[in-house]
């Protein structure tokens, strides 16, 4: 009985203590500590935009404001000019307007316009003879080197022999060579009338059996001059005289006519820059071939042909001009140029699947590169004087 009373007293005491504590407590709830703000680790870099991407986007935006670029795209693109222009416009986001006509006609137009204070052209592609003989002396070219900004263009290690191929040898800033197909021998031929194994040297062209069987583009004219220089520098004046006179080579100014006559079987070979027209004839299924399959003993060469790029000074569309120059020389631009021309670019970092196998530069083969000779223009002029003198006597 005493134990029950004692337990009840303990319970009552506990309840009383709780009531006292409740009456004297602070009704304000205990504050909850704030959640800590997360901190960024000091060693994690903040993402930044590539300055080159911003620069390229700004250039494209400026070019878009101008809307177009005017270019003279020489005969190297041939019948494939349309597809190339379509691709270029899609990539650059501007119109590419191609001025037509021959190099000579285009220069006369540019010269007349400039004398009248008119500057209508932004870009020029063509051969060295026109650039070194007309555009440079005429003061029509801008400093192209200063326009090159694309990393894929400025990195010379990505180009043939690890350096840019400039066609001007005084300051190396006006004429940029981008095309460099290999050429085993500068001879186009009728596949029914000539076995290439019969020609092991250019000297074999003097065999009497070829007398009256050779047609040629006029070696004195623009567009044939580099082939003229090749024969002159490798074989000499005496060879040219025997070839042109003793072999009774038929001379024509019309490349298409020469290719047609070759395809009809009236001639076995066509010399002096017949390649483009003969290629067109072959693609039509005619029995001709523009690429000689054997290397002649005098040596094979890489020629820029009509594949050099120039920027005109005082361009009507400066931003578009700069954009066009850099896109055209980039991997994308040169890959597309290869695809439509079947020639090989001087870039070494793009596939050559679309290039004619015979035009692809071969590993381990040393090529002649006459255009890199600082005295090349003088030698080219000398070759033209020689053939002019020879043909004047016919």
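Sequence proposed for the structure above (394 residues):
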């Amino acid at each position: 009985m005493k134990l029950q009373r004692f337990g009840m007293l303990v319970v009552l005491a506990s309840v009383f203590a709780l009531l006292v504590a409740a009456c004297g407590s602070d009704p304000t709830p205990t504050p909850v500590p704030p959640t800590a703000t997360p901190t960024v680790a000091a060693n994690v870099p903040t993402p930044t935009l590539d300055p080159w991407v911003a620069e390229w986007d700004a250039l494209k935006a400026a070019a878009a404001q101008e809307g177009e670029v005017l270019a003279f795209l020489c005969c190297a693109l041939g019948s494939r000019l349309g597809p190339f222009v379509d691709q270029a416009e899609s990539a650059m986001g501007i119109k590419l307007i191609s001025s037509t006509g021959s190099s000579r006609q285009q220069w006369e137009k540019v010269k007349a316009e400039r004398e009248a204070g008119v500057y209508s052209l932004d870009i020029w592609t063509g051969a060295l003879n026109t650039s070194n003989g007309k555009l440079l002396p005429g003061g029509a070219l801008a400093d192209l080197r200063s326009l090159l900004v694309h990393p894929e263009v400025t990195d010379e290690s990505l180009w043939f022999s690890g350096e840019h191929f400039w066609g001007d040898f005084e300051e190396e800033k006006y004429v940029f060579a981008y095309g460099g197909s290999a050429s085993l021998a500068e001879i186009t031929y009728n596949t029914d009338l000539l076995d290439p194994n019969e020609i092991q040297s250019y000297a074999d062209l003097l065999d009497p059996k070829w007398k009256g069987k050779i047609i040629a583009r006029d070696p004195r004219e623009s567009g044939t001059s580099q082939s003229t220089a090749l024969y002159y520098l490798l074989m000499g004046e005496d060879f040219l005289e025997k070839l042109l006179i003793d072999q009774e080579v038929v001379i024509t100014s019309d490349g298409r006519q020469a290719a047609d006559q070759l395809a009809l079987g009236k001639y076995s070979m066509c010399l002096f820059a017949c390649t483009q027209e003969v290629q067109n004839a072959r693609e039509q299924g005619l029995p001709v071939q523009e690429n000689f399959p054997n290397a002649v003993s005098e040596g094979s060469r890489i020629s820029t042909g009509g594949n050099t790029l120039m920027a005109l000074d005082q361009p009507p569309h400066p931003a578009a001009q700069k954009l066009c120059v850099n896109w055209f020389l980039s991997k994308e631009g040169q890959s597309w140029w290869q695809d439509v021309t079947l020639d090989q670019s001087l870039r070494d970092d793009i596939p050559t699947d679309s290039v004619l196998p015979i035009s692809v530069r071969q590993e381990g083969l040393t090529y002649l590169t006459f255009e890199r000779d600082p005295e090349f223009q003088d030698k080219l002029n000398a070759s033209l004087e020689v053939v002019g003198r020879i043909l004047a006597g016919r």
